[in-house]
Amino acid sequence: MSIITRFDPWRNKLCTCPPKYTINPYTGCSHSCLYCYATSYIKRNKSTPKRDLLSRLIRDINKIKPNLPIDMSLSSDPYPPEEREIRLTRKVLEIILPLGFKVQITTKSDLYVLDIDLISSYNVAVSETITTLDNSLARKLEINAPSPINRLRALETLKANNVPFSVRIDPIIPFLNDEEEELRELVRTVARIGARHIVTSTYKARPNNFRRLINAFPELEKKLHKLYYPKGKMKFGYAYLPISLRKKLLFPIIDEAKKLNITYATCREGLVEKDFFRTPSCDSTHLIPEKVPIKTIKTLVTLEEFLK
Ligand code: SF4
Predict the structure, then answer these.
(1) Is residue 30 within 8 Å of residue 47, measured between CB atoms?
(2) Which of 9, 32, 103, 270 has an alpha carbon 20 to 30 Å from 291's alpha carbon atom?
(3) What angle do CA 32, 138, 159 make, to 5 degrees?
(4) In terms of C-beta density within 10 A (0-12 exposed, 13-18 middle, 19 or more buried), how is residue 184 classed?
């Protein structure tokens, strides 16, 4: 089975991502975010290294189109707490980066600073998710992920090392992280550090993530249920908030990005008009720099070279 696959967001037609590959060094995710969408498809909630990852990776890199970016990762975090010991993501980077592949690290962690030597030398951009600046709310929502302050510190390290980065303010959940002035302050904070692009979206309910949210915030059950079920709309297996409410929740983030003159996009909202979407790529892969050229297929590594 391929380890580098074409990104296919479960055939969701609202996805505006440009063509790209994705690789997940781990299966499952130890961050245990309450709102995680991946748990509808992948049942494990601990990050487990993929079996035979490196040999499968080396087989696949001889087959993929070298001009398309590789997003790492989209259904698990490439920097879960386990990465500190296992260093599997680092091994993947050590293989693909010197070959000139363009890589976006999509994460909710700060651990990528351990790899700043690699990240700053090759074709890498980082997309960091920060849903709130409120540490206690983040601790409840993203149980095992680093605190917002630690993620901000990691962004400062990227800035100091000239690595481009975007920030995902995603998802916005009614009654939890939707306070307008706090969202505006979050955009201003990450822009001050050097974020060049903002992606945002509202929370879309799936039965299992909705249950986790309600268990953690039982006082919100009735209010959230009313917004998502009688009033909301099902799209591609997800319950969406009413469109007018989605626009209202996302507006402060977009408006602040506009004022700061940084690019912005919404994710799987169907809001592609320029009021909500002004960017060369919604997922920020356009930020990936070209520091080293891609090697031709002939010079790509062989399995034997890497395994000896
Ligand atoms: S970091 Fe991403 S994949 Fe991991 S639990 Fe959170 S939302 Fe899910």
Answers:
(1) yes
(2) 9
(3) 100
(4) middle
Measure 302 CA to ligand 1 centroid, in angstroms.
Answer: 33
For domain 4-195+281-307, the CATH architecture is Alpha-Beta Barrel (3.20)
The SS3 assignment for 240 reads: strand
pTM for the model: 0.94
DSSP class of residue 286 equals G
Give the span between the Cα atoms of 285 and 57, in whole angstroms.
Answer: 21
Instruction: For residue 104, give the 3-state DSSP assignment.
Output: strand
CA dist 265 and 275 (Å) reads 9
Shortest-distance atom of ligand 1 to CA 45: 5
Omega before 171 cis (within 30°)? yes
Cβ–Cβ < 8 Å for 138, 131: yes
Quote the ligand 1 centre to 8 CA distance (angstroms).
17
- Regarding the beta carbon of 168 and ligand 1, being less than 6 Å apart is answered no
Tell me the average pLDDT across 200-225: 96
- Most informative mutation of 10, 74, 108 for ligand 1 (most atoms within 8 A of CB): 108
Q: Which of 137, 161, 164 is closest to 148 using CA atoms?
A: 137
135 C-alpha to ligand 1 centroid (Å): 17
Whether 33 is in the pocket of ligand 1, judged by its Cβ within 6 Å, is: yes
pLDDT tens per residue across span 154-205: 999 999 999 999 999 999 999 999 999 999 999 999 999 999 999 999 999 9
Is any ligand 1 atom within 6 A of the Cβ of residue 36?
Answer: yes
Which of 45, 76, 107, when mutated, tests ligand 1's pocket best, judged by the most ligand atoms within 8 Å of its CB?
Answer: 76
The Cα–Cα gap between 43 and 52 comes to 20
Neighbours of 114 (CB within 10 A): 16
Q: How far is the CA of 157 from the centre of ligand 1 (A)?
A: 22
